[in-house]
Design brief:
Layout: H1 2-19, H2 29-44
Amino acid sequence: MFAIIAAVIFGLALILDWADARVSDAFTPQTLLMAGLLCIALHLAGIGTTRRWGRRR
C-alpha cells in the first residue's frame, strides 16, 4: 500500500519539477521526494503490507 502511495507522490513531484510550478514553500518537489522516500521505507519495513483475512477465534 505504501509503495503505491510513494509512486503517486513521486509522479506528482516529477510533474511539479518539470513544470517548474511554485505551489508554496511547504509543497515543493523536494518535500514530496522526502514523503515518497518515507513511504518506501515504511513499505520495506513491512508496515502496511499485510492484510488480515477472516476473524480471530
